[in-house]
Amino acid sequence: MNHRRTETWLQYVRDELTSAERATCEAHLDSCDACFELCMQCLEQAGDLLPELENQEAFSEAVMIRLEQELPPTRLVDMVPEQSKRKLRIPWIQHPFFHYAVAAAITLILMNTGVFQTLTQQIERFDTAAGKKVEAEAVLHGSVSEKLMNKTIGMLDSIQPRYERGGTHESK
């Protein structure tokens, strides 16, 4: 990257460059931070050499009038500082604090009326009833492997006594 010399930036600040040279310098300023810093230093140095503005208020007024003429009216609204936008009040019912206060009040009312206690008792009753039902089903039905084992033992018990009496596999 070709960096410009300090002399070039001083000429840029004093407006001593041609329009083509000025355009190339401005394009270079967009892409080079080091040259931008150098240009800012030159601007500070040249600021001491520039004449003082005699009537600052008149100059400010002239700039504002020209700005109003160049920009559409909708853009002027966008230029209002953020601080004045914050001063716009929102209705109290839309404020987040109001929502939190309403939620807290409803919670306190429900706690004082015992709704939460009744709700937990109902849930506890359902849990104990469901637990007893599951235990009863487990006792009555048993597991599949337990049923299979019982049938196998029963079948083996029915076969074994025949062999003990001297019977054969083929019985009457």
Could you explain the architecture of this structure?
The protein folds into 2 domains: 6-86; 96-164, no CATH class. It is built from 9 helices and no strands. The protein has helices spanning 6-14, 19-31, 33-49, 56-70, 73-78, 82-86, 96-113, 115-141, 144-164. Helix 2 packs across helix 3. The protein starts with 5 loop residues before the first helix and ends in an 8-residue tail after the last helix. 3% of the residues are buried. The model has no long low-confidence stretch (mean pLDDT 79).
Q: TL;DR of this structure?
A:
This protein has 172 residues and is an all-alpha fold. Helix content is 76%, strand content 0%.
Break the fold down into its secondary structure elements and pairings.
Blueprint (H helix, E strand, L loop, with lengths): L5 H9 L4 H13 L1 H17 L6 H15 L2 H6 L3 H5 L9 H18 L1 H27 L2 H21 L8
Helix pairs in contact: 1-3, 2-3
> What is the number of E strands?
0
Q: Which whole number gives the mean pLDDT?
A: 79
Strand fraction equals under 5%
| N-to-C order of helices and strands | HHHHHHHHH
Number of helices: 9
| Low-pLDDT segments, ≥5 res | none
Major pleated sheet: none
Shape: elongated
Task: Give the distance, in angstroms, between the N- and C-terminal Cα atoms.
Answer: 111 Å
- Counting helices, strands and paired strands, the structural category is mainly alpha
Number of domains: 2
Helix content: over 70%
Radius of gyration: 46 Å
